[in-house]
Amino acid sequence: MGSDPALEHAPDPDEAPAHEVEVGAFRLGRTPVTNAQYGTFVEATGQTPPAAWPGGTVPLGRELHPVMYVSWDEAAAFCRWAGGFLPTEAQWERAARGDDRRTWPWGDHPPRAADAVLELTDTRPVGGRVPGAGPFDHLDLAGNAWEWTSSHLRAYPYDPGDGREGDGPGLRVVRGGAFIHGPAEARCSYRHGMLPGTVDHYVGFRLAAAPGVAVDGIELLDVPTGVVRLGNDPRPSHGEAPMDEAPRHTSGVEAVELTATPVTNQQYAAFVAATGRAAPIHWGDGDAPAELERHPVTHVDWHDAAAFCAWAGGRLPTESEWEKGARGDDGRLYPWGDGTPDARRAHAGEGMKHGATATVGAAPAGASPYGLLDMAGNVWEWVSSAYRPYPYDAGDGREDTTRDESRVLRGGSFASLTAGHLRCARRSASRPGRRSAHIGFRVARPAADQRKDDR
User: Fold this and answer.
1) Average pLDDT over residues 280-298
2) Which of 19, 130, 199, 280 stands the most exposed, by the fewest C-beta atoms within 10 Å?
């Protein structure tokens, strides 16, 4: 179930090819250099203060924020003064990635607010995102400030002997993303080049040093000798996955039958007639409109859907059962596979203002591995599960239908404007009392062999 966030952010061409480089032991600042630390350098050397310092002094309240508005030359000068150097691109990625090809310094789950300073309007004090520590306990390697490295921006494979670590003009590599960026730019392997004279509000740096070197006022952590796995091989993007789809995981599912299509207005009419339950509001006089008989019933809330299923001898599918029915065993992106959605496969992309439901099963090319239709598009479908974080655990209370919790919707609808809503792993949720023109449901019940065993 769910998505692997590492597959949602395709690498840029300059990250290829993936390759290995041996990196000797070195030390690296646990955090980026702060305004206060840079202030000591300014006082000791007479270096021109950063442009962001009013009156040439460290701004009050920003002492522990990463220093910004420093050029590559100014960052390198600080490092020399402190007895160290700017890290090479390979050293920086070694510190961020360790001995594996993790996507972000903390691993492969997408960034959370506790992990990294991302998608904000300003920096934050360094070291405040402890859960986002890298493999050697460095902090802020993703987000807060882009960090200068010593390396010129050149094509991979990385070779320190090809001149990229020398003097001369040309773009220098920055790493790690900044507070303005999102998950893609914060990946360990993301590279960007800037002219060394660039002075900007989201570019800082951290100090590297030789083993055994100590610097007053700066915490340096050891990075042992090892092989860094630089970059990524090309692969297509699977489209960005929301954080609620992570982590990707497996969930045992007993054999179950799902109706081939969502429940139709015609089928729901029989339920209304038999039980006296209120008809959906769009039926007008209380009867299902003839032209909509084979369309999925809509304007039914979660309670209505559950009541119909019980009357029909079944129940709403769990979130796990629904995704298994849509995805099968191979982790496919869409019910039909990984091919791009089109009108033959899914009724979607129309928007609420102009769109409407279609006859169920009208897109047979979109069938799931088990022949289920309309698992992508037409209507979002209620499932039994409460909307809770993954991993999915049927025993944690999310399948308790007596609880007043938001319930999960699956599959996208005619109103979904992007293909991302049609992916098998996509989750949405609403309060159980919601009734809408683009929400319906289908029925689950034990598989035929199970029903025989129960007799």
Assistant:
1) 94
2) 130
Q: In this structure, what token pair is assigned to residue 271?
A: 């339920």
Does residue 247 have a cis peptide bond before it, meaning omega lies within 30 degrees of 0? yes
Please, what sign has the CA dihedral across residues 192, 193, 198, 204? positive
Distance separating alpha carbons of residues 38 and 61, to the nearest angstrom? 15
Q: Model-level pTM?
A: 0.60
Q: What are the contacts of 303-307 at 24+ separation with CB within 8 A?
A: 303/432, 303/433, 304/277, 304/435, 305/263, 305/382, 305/440, 305/441, 306/382, 306/384, 306/401, 307/271, 307/275, 307/277
Q: d(Cα 429, Cα 204) in Å, to the nearest integer? A: 40
DSSP E strands in 133-196: the ranges are 146-152, 172-175, 192-194
Cβ within 8 Å of residue 60, ≥6 positions away: none
Spatial separation of the C-alpha atoms in residues 182 and 166, rounded to whole Å: 31
Q: DSSP letter for 324, please.
A: H
Q: Which residue has the tokens 């199970």?
A: 450
Which stretches of 30-169 are DSSP H helices?
Answer: 35-45, 72-81, 89-97
* DSSP class of 99: T
pLDDT at 453: 42
Average pLDDT over the chain, rounded to whole?
92
Beta strand pairing call for 226-230 and 220-223 = unpaired
